[in-house]
């Protein structure tokens, strides 16, 4: 069977400001959730690409991008990967233009701050020039949406519409049959200076392709998870632990540890005299003692001693310790420690 090379482009040059302080020291794609980092969950979504397709990964990196390269080399050594540096992020289309030398033939564009569940096996028989993955939402006004005709073909992409009638939110996952057509549209987008606040958005390039006659359809997803803020990560952690990432049944039972599933606890983590769960992820090399933790993520080598945590995100090698304190509280005082 003839092999088809599918380029998978993952723009990752953003600073991840909504996830600070965690993204001061690592790219947001390397933040952990349910036992893996966000990037690994994204790569997992490619497992259903049909037989006969050879994946060629094109990572567009920026701040701390060397960590992305090191992670891919260590954990995915069999992948064929190219790296493009976007030093001054000027938007999604700008990132794709920088990667142009690697983009030929069919391609996927995957934005790595959202996670979806989708079956990509249909690509073997896909006849449309483009596919936009979408999810119906109750209120589309804070999303980009796909406008479709009566046959379900995309006629326009609109960023944050004022009306409610088009509720198909685009989730940041696209297929293009021919990368050259997208690159040509990006060239026109920049020549026409179609941008917003100094950034060139992919949606505008796609609209140019639609003007030129692109036949694009939508592919609906039921699950669309956000990994862009601490609160969203905690919510995504809950969903993933409930759906295939709970390893509570594989853990060694200890008399002084209470586990309330679902949880993910790395085999190298040390837990003593503690209550963990529900919805807790504990990374490699963590130490937890005399603590109660629920709805939280502790990344690799974090330590928690004598603490009570809920709805918390604790970074790599962070140390949380509780010591006795002295309080002189007056009438009607509420003290939370």
Query: Count the strands?
Result: 23
Helix content: 10-25%
- Please trace the helix and strand order, writing H or E for each element: EEEHEHEHEEEEEEHHEEHEEEEEEEEEE
Q: Count the DSSP helices.
A: 6
Unreliable spans = none
Overall 3D form: elongated
What is the distance, rounded to the nearest whole angstrom, between the alpha carbons of the first and last residues?
64 Å
Mean pLDDT: 89
Characterize the largest beta sheet: strand count, sense, and whether it forms a barrel: 7 strands, mixed
Oligomer: single chain
Summarize the structure in words.
- The chain is of the alpha/beta class and 337 residues long.
- 19% of the residues lie in helices and 32% in strands.
- Strands 5-4-1-6-11-8-12 form a 7-stranded mixed sheet, sandwiched between helices. Strands 14, 15, 17, 18, 20 and 22 form a 6-stranded parallel sheet that branches.
- Helix 2 links the parallel strand 4 and strand 5.
- Helix 4 crosses helix 5 (202-211).
- The radius of gyration is 22 Å and the shape is elongated.
- 39% of the residues are buried.
- The model has no long low-confidence stretch (mean pLDDT 89).
Structure at a glance:
With 337 residues, this protein is α/β, with parallel strands linked by helices.
